[in-house]
Amino acid sequence: MPSTHVRQHRIATARRVVVKVGTNSITGENGRLDHAVLGDFARQIAEVVHQGREIILVASGAVGAGLAELDLPGRPRELPMLQATAAVGQGRLMQAFYEAFGRHDVKVAQVLVTRDAFEDRRRYLNIRNTLTTLARLGVLPILNENDAVAVDEIRYGTDVFSAKFGDNDVIAAHVANMLDADVLVLLSNVDGVLDKGAVLDVIEQVNDDALSVVSATRSKLGSGGMGSKMRAGGMVTSAGNVAVIANSRTSDVLPRLLAGEKLGTVFVPASRRMSSRRRWIGQTSRTAGKILVDAGAAAALRQRGKSLLPSGILAVSGSFASGAVVDILDPAGQSVARGVANFSADDIDRIKGMKSASILKLLGDNAATEVVHRNNMTLAEAT
Length: 383
Description:
Largest sheet: 8 strands, mixed
Order of helices and strands: HEHHEHHEHHEHEEEEHHEHEHEHEEEHHE
Number of helices: 15
Oligomer: single chain
């Protein structure tokens, strides 16, 4: 799909947009909040809000703001000090946002999140309800990972589908998918995805080839790198929506992007939109165990969209109850899908390899015939 089509027909018409701004985009070289830059950023967001668009902001910067307040020379390496720095900086960061947006008659609300809040289905839905209610009230939500209590996240942890969770790029992608946002805009200190020094206009698919062009390095203040942004873009586009990486310091970058102007790198969305439940299963939930299937079952899932039946199961690992999310692996150990199990691990071990009639005789007439139904399953992305 050409970049121009995506920009004009998907981005310029977007009504709900998640915007992520990184630490280096709102701080100066000394690590302190740059109030002039932050003020201009607030002006841009206010402009598009007053156009009638719904904006959800995911903002890094708590650790950077804390460094300045505590006069620290650099990002701490010890976890307690890192969390304390974030706790000091979070209040300072929100105060600055409150003042900057207040000058443009935009009300703001702080929403602090952690990884487990997204993984638990009930808490996930509660976050979504809060954000949609704030939108109805005309309030701009400002989300940030709660680094003051995070552990694995603040150390750059990894989620179970290989997208790094420990930074706000991935949180922004989860929020965009949670709300079915039309566009995810990732603003950074670079003009887009660079390949041999040139900005790529468009990325058709986030796969190993696309990821190979980016550097794995991080900035001295920020927690993410371009690889993190690429994976975040891939999470959103695989669900059927658009992502863009652009330079926050480009003049009027946000209004110009949302007008369809050619700025940054556009990620082309998949042709089919994923349901909200499948987004949560495939990209957000934490799995409780693994099911190993034979080649025939793997092909039925991947190529024919079938449910997982006991007859194709070779083995099960982990201890989990019915209703848990599990990884489904092929004989080579490659991920096939992720889904909600209709049976406990013990029952799956009892019925693996069996035909449906034998299962009903063993577990009763009310037992399900599918171990994982296709409606509660998300296929792994091929790379």
